[in-house]
Amino acid sequence: MASIAGTKAEDAKISWTSYFSGGAIGPFIGLIALCTFLAFTSDTFLTLRNFLNVMDQITVIGVMAIGMTLVILLGGIDLSVGSVLALSGMVLGYLGNYLGWPFGLGIVAALVVSALCGVVSGLMITKLNMPAFIATLAMMSIARGIASIITDGQQIVGFPDWFSSLAIIRHFGLLSATVAAMVVLTIVFFVFLKYRPAGRALYAIGGNPEVARLAGIHVERATLLVYTVCALLAGLAGVILSARLDSAQPSSGIGYELDTIAAVVIGGASLSGGVGGIGGTVVGVLIIGFLRNGLNLLHVSPFVQQVIIGVVIALAVAADTLRARHR
Amino acid sequence: MAEQPNHSDVVLSVRGLGKKYGPITVLTDVGFDVRRGEVLALLGENGAGKSTVSAIIAGLVRPTAGTMTWMGKPHAPLSPADALSAGVGLIHQEMRLLPDLSIAENVFVGRLPTRQGRIDRASINRRAEEQLRRLGLDVAPTTLVRDLKVAAQQQVEIAKALTLNARLLIFDEPTAALGGEETDLLFRRIEQLKAEGVSFIYISHRLDEIARIADRIAVLRDGQLVATHETAQIPVKVLVEEMVGRPLDRMFPTLDEAPGEVLLEVENISSPDGTFKDVSFSVRQGEVLGIAGIVGAGRTELVRAIAGADPISSGVVKIQGKPIGLHHPSDALDEGIVLVPEDRKGQGLILPQTIAENIAQTNYEQIAPSGWINPRNVNHFARSAISRFGIKGQAEQRVSQLSGGNQQKVVIAKCISRNPRVVILDEPTRGIDVGARAAIYDVVADLARRGMAVIVVSSDLDEVLGLAHRVMVLSRGINRGILERRDANRLAVMELATT
Q1: Does B413 touch chain A (CB under 8 A)?
Q2: Within an 8 Å CB–CB cutoff, is residue A215 touching chain B?
Q3: What ranges do the domains of chain A cover?
Q4: What is the predicted ipTM?
Q5: Contact with chain B for residue A9, Cβ under 8 A
Q6: Domains in chain B, CATH or no CATH each
Q7: Is B439 exposed, middle or buried (0-12, 13-18, 19+ CB in 10 A)?
Q8: Is the separation of the CB atoms in B115 and B123 below 8 Å?
């Protein structure tokens, strides 16, 4: 078989392109097409100001989508992220504004509470063998309920200036602290999934958990950890949202779990697990972000926007399954 | 057994059959006859075109050339339903039944008779029961398929075809999942149906079965018909050479005679659910231990436990005299024990991933000793494994696209690249064609030569006898004896296996 050896140049090309695309080439082309279309139809779309606005708008979904990518890679799903986001904001607001805790400590506590939600979901899935859909559906209701109980459904308004400014002040005229956090986390998890054996183990578990177990991977431990990280990131998204809005309310983040799942799926991940990646998810988040932004710029009504986003989800996944069938 | 051939007896005749997928030719000019009430065995290596031929006859695939005549009329089924209504049924290797429906519902699925707009359950139960009784299956037609054993599920498939008045049944590896007794039962049914005038096309890798059940043999190689035999009493060597296309000097490699120090000791281990009890044995460096026994004897469960995949309730496993704790497969891997599992697709491979990813998964300590993966090293590692094990495929190819033999080599490659001390192979050649088999036997002998302790579990007696220095025989979870190579023969093994 002469073809196996190949030339050095060929080998390098094959390995690098396939390793990084991870199924995200199609969505990426879609993103470019979308941006090109918007650049021609709206004169404000292609400005730095607008771009930075979009970055601000996608921070919350972007951070949550990282965790959701890990969960979906495992072949799982997490419906509780929207509720955990709300709970995180309410814990932060309650500890800071009602109990007078130092705000930094409040942030830590909010993240710990969020992570605990993930631990509970993870234990329900690994120890009680509950389907992830059901376990996180339960957690979605529980977290939302606790978020409402804290202030009996009242919102909490007015946080310290340094905190709100995290989402407002753009350092070097470009990045706010919150956007920077999203960018850093994205890079960290991208590198983790690509270049660390533990990251590749998630692909193995999603591809076939029994094969992964026989390969010496601790599947239960990894699953528990992934749901914890996903909830932790949802909690962080709650902190970010509180900073952006300078308030926290028990009803925030309703439906965010679906936006997050949509972004991950548009990015080429498979709900049956083992396929996807941060690269694709970034593209998915950007598609949703630019689409919303562009449709606003074009004065399309929010109701029509919903329809369009639904169509985009369907098209993205249909394109993917058609491609899979051709292989 | 077969009557004098008579051309008026021909029920199916296939002439000049060809199939191309785009530029790839998988079948060229295949022609043969099937006569009334006979079993025609279709032999060939994996990829020889057997499944394509049967898929065309059963209406799953349409040919690109050739004609078929069925009961004197042109036969060009557009769908499996088409073929079935003409009387041609295909029984798949893997059952295609709905586990949560009853036997009767499965038999009549897609054509449930109704009375006054409601499903006529009395009628389907009665008619299903008739067929079940005809097949000697003593279960209620209302039993859920999930509650049946694999062999009984196969009978349901047959019953389904029979209620459609099938006159030709195509069996694709029907005994792959059956034990010896179940195979006997299946063969009795086939004989009985033959007497009723039903014809069979029978595909199997087990040549000893062919001699028992077939009347005539057709051999395919690389999509072409290379031989037809008017009798099934053909020496195995001849058939194998026809399938492989070259003379086979030897199937099994020679083994080095003198194994070294005792490496693996298993002392009195039992499983929590009693599938194996109080089993003890040891394996030396450079030794191949065969484990024989009938299906259900507890062989797979035993080796899975040694590999840390299933729990042990009592007893110890020692490596070089040192007891090891086995709580998770990673514990066994850390001690250098690897398992090449029985079920390639379910336990050995991640099908949507590439060869490189599959091989890398268990070998990141070597590929990325720093903890950081360089994709180029992943591919490099995979390519060296591909050439070492003679895998026909490329690093970037998905394992789902490979043949069974090559998939098995990938599983072996991924396990062996760790340089283990103990290698356990469970049914290493199940469903693999003859040529690839010999290659796998060579790998096994090579592992022993390098000083590893090798355990081979197999239902194929020739394989165990040909490969192993010693053979341990299990039956009903108990070690019935370990035979030295010079004492090990079919009879001795079967005597112990049936105690």
Answers
A1: no
A2: yes
A3: 44-320
A4: 0.80
A5: no
A6: 7-244 (3.40.50.300), 262-497 (3.40.50.300)
A7: middle
A8: yes
Provide, as residue numbers in chain B, all residues whose Cβ is less than 8 Å from the Cβ of A210: 346-347
Measured distance CA(B475)–CA(B497) in Å, rounded:
5
Q: How far is B481 from chain A (nearest CA, A)?
A: 29
| Token representation of residue A100 | 């007078």
Other Cβ atoms less than 10 A from the Cβ of B119: the count is: 13
CB of A8 less than 8 A from some CB of B = no
Q: Do the chains contact at B387 and A4, CB–CB below 8 Å? A: yes
The model's pTM is 0.77
CB contact, 8 Å: B192 with chain A? no
User: How many CA atoms does the CB half-sphere of B397 hold within 13 Å?
Assistant: 16
Question: Of B350, B376, B394, B418, which to mutate for an interface test with A (greatest number of A Cβ within 10 Å)?
Answer: B350
Q: Out of A14, A200, A211, name the one closest to residue B373 (CB).
A: A200
| Chain B: residue whose CA lies nearest to A1 | B392
A259–chain B nearest CA distance, Å:
27
Q: What is the pLDDT along chain A (327 residues), one digit of tens a residue?
A: 333 333 333 443 443 444 444 556 778 888 999 999 999 998 888 899 999 999 999 999 999 999 999 999 999 999 999 999 999 999 999 999 999 999 999 999 999 999 999 999 999 999 999 999 999 999 999 999 999 999 999 999 989 999 999 988 888 878 899 999 999 999 999 999 999 999 999 999 999 999 999 999 999 999 999 999 999 999 999 999 999 999 999 999 999 999 999 999 999 898 889 989 999 999 999 999 999 999 999 999 989 988 998 998 888 888 777 766 654
Multiple choice CATH, A44-320, 1.10.3470, 1.10.510, 1.10.10, 1.20.120: 1.10.3470
Interface contact B22, partner A, CB < 8 A: no
Q: Which two tokens stand for residue B340?
A: 């090449």
